[in-house]
């Protein structure tokens, strides 16, 4: 499983997920620990608000954690096979850990 976290500053979870261009990707290592494995810093035309193409760089994740988004964004991600989670947590790794714990 791969989890993307919306983070415009690569430090905290940010909202406006449809306009986000920066994502921290987390994956589980062989010891079962969740670690940051990738950062995406996409051009403006690759935000989901602007994107109209078929394949997006975030399409390889299973879950996206954000601090805020609308129902339209949630539906768009569901159509791409991505589950959206809205979190009040500000620290990306903490949000990932909390999501896994509550699953």
Q: Structural class of the helices, strands and pairings? A: alpha/beta
The whole-number mean of residue pLDDT values reads 96
| CATH domain class | Alpha Beta
User: Mind telling me which CATH architecture this is?
Assistant: 2-Layer Sandwich
Question: Spatial order of the strands in the main sheet?
Answer: 3-2-1-4-5
Q: What is the count of structural domains?
A: 1
CATH fold-level topology: Nucleotidyltransferase, domain 5
Q: What order do the SSEs take from the amino end to the carboxyl end, as H and E? A: EEEEHEH
Considering the protein shown, what is the CATH homologous superfamily? Dinitrogenase iron-molybdenum cofactor biosynthesis domain
Q: How far apart lie the N and C ends?
A: 13 Å
* Beta-strand segment tally: 5
Given the C-alpha coordinates, what overall shape results? globular
What does the radius of gyration come to? 13 Å
Q: Ranges with pLDDT <50 over ≥5 residues?
A: none
């Amino acid at each position: 499983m791969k989890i993307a976290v919306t983070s415009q500053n690569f430090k905290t979870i940010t909202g406006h997920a449809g306009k986000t261009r920066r994502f921290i990707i987390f994956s589980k290592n062989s010891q079962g620990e969740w670690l940051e494995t990738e950062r995406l810093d996409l051009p403006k035309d690759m935000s989901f608000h602007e994107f109209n193409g078929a394949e997006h760089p975030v399409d390889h994740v299973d879950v996206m954690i954000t601090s805020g988004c609308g129902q339209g964004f949630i539906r768009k991600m569901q159509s791409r096979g991505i589950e959206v989670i809205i979190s009040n947590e500000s620290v990306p790794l903490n949000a990932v850990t909390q999501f896994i714990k509550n699953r």
